[in-house]
Task: structure prediction
Amino acid sequence: MGKYPYNNLKHEELYYHLNVVDTKCATLLQLSGIVLMIGTVSLASDIISNNLLWLLSTIFTIFLVISFLSLSVVWLHWSKSNTELIKILKYRTRVYNICVILTAIGLISIAVYVFCTLGT
Result:
């Protein structure tokens, strides 16, 4: 069956799986937007410690990358060929998995940032 068992799926089933991946990436895109908004408000209100600015910059970069990757996944693309749909599904699944890993790293970085700023 292989690593990706999509070869035996019907056209409608492939679109169903694409919809699942798209929905999950859209959720990560929303989370990234919320994190970026909170970070921007924090910067604007001047409550950021200067010695941890590098960490906040790293967090911003991570969530910006997640946003761009998520946008590439939720891009609308219609296809009539199952072979092309399988390629798209494999690509979007890989990108989604990368976004999940980056989200975990970003959330851990936020936790580190909060922990480091508790004493200041």
Notes: Helices lie at 11-44, 53-73, 82-117. The longest helix spans residues 82-117. DSSP finds three helices and no strands in the chain.
